[in-house]
Amino acid sequence: MRKEIFAYVKEEYNIEPDYPWARTPDCAILRHRHNRKWFAAILVVQENKLGLDGDHIVDVLNVKCDPLLIGSLRCEPGILSAYHMNKEHWITILLNGQVPQQKIYDLIQLSYQLTK
Prior knowledge:
Layout: H1 2-13, E1 28-31, E2 38-46, E3 57-64, H2 67-73, E4 79-81, E5 90-94, H3 101-114
Antiparallel strand pairs: 1-2, 2-3, 3-5, 4-5
């Protein structure tokens, strides 16, 4: 799913992923070109660090979200409280097929707008 997200962001916003951490080369940041603010992060995280059972490594997407939507979104399968971000303004999406691709793209668009 990460390749599809990168292709979508490249097509929609002409933005390439940034890999700022040498210790975690699989983690990527998507940021605005003009203000350098993050609007999304793709991270590799152990399931138990997300409050899930298991210790497998999974890909997740962090996006900024309207606080009024966060509660209802977290009730949906595959959408969790933000990992390593402000839980009042960010959510984490499992990139394992539970969340439909179009919904992920819609949430990326929302995050992009909120971080302008």
